[in-house]
Amino acid sequence: MEQSLIEQLMKLEIITEPDELTTHIERIVQGLGFDYFRMAIIIPVSHHRPEVSILNSCPEEWIESYSRRGMLARDPVVAAARRQLTPIWWDKVRGTDEQMDVMIEAAKCGLRHGVSYPLHGPRGEHGVLSFITERERPGFYLEITPTLGMVVPSVLEAAIRICRPKGDAGLKVIEADCLFWVSAGKTTGEISIILGMPERTVTHHLNSATRKLGANNRYNAVARAMAGGELSWTLDRVTVIDY
């Protein structure tokens, strides 16, 4: 089974369409003994209105109800995935009455038992991937945990590649560098000295970055770039603490 699973995970690398990805993930999870899967990827294209992509093999009744009733905002599993890194066992999920109503409604549609993995991508993406069964299977979830640890990152990488808005090529290195120095409180003149280029060139790169990020000004661009993982630290000048 392990060799077959590895081959299936490798096939994720060549999939290009969301529907095809959904079908392939469904094949993988059913082969592992689960009935359904559900995956939500939140892509920070905008701080106030991020783009959410949902891939799942759940019953149509649940898919329609979840969307129509706006359950994403009060889903306790999604809430837990935003504050922890470890797997979320459904039988241990707690929340407000409104949140727990989501779990009750899910159970009515056959989504009774599950484990969910928080997702965190390289450019600020986050979300959750759930593996679900209709009936309780004592010991099954603990036994399958090591295997799921191999499945989750492969599925996440494929989902980000496919679901991110097309044409989102990210910032050029020099654009990110200019924004970094803006975030450090530097003026255009100071940035030009630091990077060794004319002020008009710095302004050009900042304007380009601002347009790409759909921002109103350079400061808004910094906020969006940080939320989207476009600004990350470098390791050439660091303080290393050995314990």
Automatic annotation (TrEMBL):
Residues 164-229 form the HTH luxR-type domain. GO terms for biological process: regulation of DNA-templated transcription. InterPro entries: Sig_transdc_resp-reg_C-effctor, TF_LuxR_autoind-bd_dom, TF_LuxR_autoind-bd_dom_sf, Tscrpt_reg_LuxR_C, WH-like_DNA-bd_sf. The lineage of its organism: Bacteria, Pseudomonadati, Pseudomonadota, Gammaproteobacteria, Aeromonadales. It comes from the Bacteria. PROSITE patterns: HTH_LUXR_1 (PS00622), HTH_LUXR_2 (PS50043). GO terms for molecular function: DNA binding. Signal peptide: none annotated. SMART domains: HTH_LUXR. Keywords: DNA-binding, Transcription, Transcription regulation. The keyword Transcription regulation applies. This is Transcriptional regulator. It comes from Aeromonas caviae. The keyword DNA-binding applies.
